[in-house]
Amino acid sequence: MLDLGFLENRDFFIIPEDDKIYFAIKFNSEYIDEIAHKLQKISDLKTPGIKMPFARCMTDYFTAFGSRQRLQCIQEYLESEIDFDYYDYIDVIDKHYPLHKVEGITEINKSFDKYNWKL
After folding, report:
1. Which of 9, 55, 64, 87 has a beta carbon 3.0–4.6 Å from 93's, enabling a disulfide?
2. pLDDT digits 0-9 by tens, 22-41
3. How distant, in Å, are the alpha carbons of 22, 52, 77, 90, 109 from that of 104?
4. Measured between alpha carbons, how far apart are the two ends of the chain, in Å?
5. DSSP state of 5
């Protein structure tokens, strides 16, 4: 992550709690562009029907990444840096999951608490 210029307490957060450590990463658009460039993600040009590998020097020619493309970039990047299966197998990682739209998760929990199994 340091190769992307991530800074602690701005782009990633480490939260120790009892015998566990929680780690959260925030990816802004510049990081997504850099990852897409490194991974050579096939992306849509603003000209309809044309796709090509993303190039950060030509960002004005590409359409904005959709939410699914953003998540794919993040997941592929993290999987290229971290062997989740191995660390899960040796019990270094208890659980891992992508969090996005954290406010939405709060709303879902509120609705579930209110309506319980009626949803």
Report:
1. 87
2. 778 888 888 889 899 998 99
3. 20, 33, 24, 32, 9
4. 40
5. T
Contacts 24+ apart (CB under 8 A), 75-80: 76/35, 76/39, 77/35, 77/38, 77/39, 78/25, 80/39
| Tokens, residue 15 | 């939260």
Long-range CB contacts for residues 48-56, cutoff 8 Å, separation at least 24: none
- Collapsing DSSP to helix, strand or coil, 41 comes out as coil
Q: What is the DSSP string of 47-106?
A: STT-EEE--GGGGGGBPPPPHHHHHHHHHHHHHHH--HHHHHHTTS-S-------HHHHH
The single-letter code of the amino acid at 27 is: F
